[in-house]
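Objective 1b. Sequence-to-structure analysis of Putative oxidoreductase.
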Amino acid sequence: MVALTTSMHRAGDATALIARIAIGAVFVAHGWHKLSGLDGTAQSFAGLGLPMPRMAALLGVVIEVGGGTLLAIGLLLPLAAVGLAAMMAAAYGLVHAGDPLIAPGGGPSFELVLVLGAAALAVGFNGGRFALDRLLPWSRPRAAAPAARTAGAVADR
C-alpha cells in the first residue's frame, strides 16, 4: 500500500511538472508575441481605451513572459499564478466580456482565458515536488513544535 501511495504521489508530482511547463510555455508564447509586435500590441491596447498603452503592453509582456517562465520552472509559484490569472481576468474584462464560452461559428469566445487563468492558479498553488520553490527556505517543511509532537504521541496510544 505504501508503494502504491508513493508511486501515486510521484505521478502527481510529474503531472504537475508537465502541466506547469505546458501552461508556462503558452503564456511565454503569448508574451513573446506581444513583445515581437509591441507597436501593434500598444495600438490594440489603445483601441481598448487603456491609458498608456505602450506601458500596458510592456506590463503584459513582463507578466506573461516572466510569469510563464516562473510557472514552468516552479519558482515563486503563487506570485506567478496570481499575476497570470489577473492578466487573464483583465483579458476577459477588456476583450471577452459578453463573448460566449464557446462560439458555435468559431468567433470570439472566452474559454482560452478561462482555462489559462484557472490552470495557472491550479498549478501555481499545487506545483508539485519538482519545483524550485521547494528549495526556498520558507517552503521547507518545519519540524513539529514540541507540544504537537507530545500530543501526537499521546493520541497514538
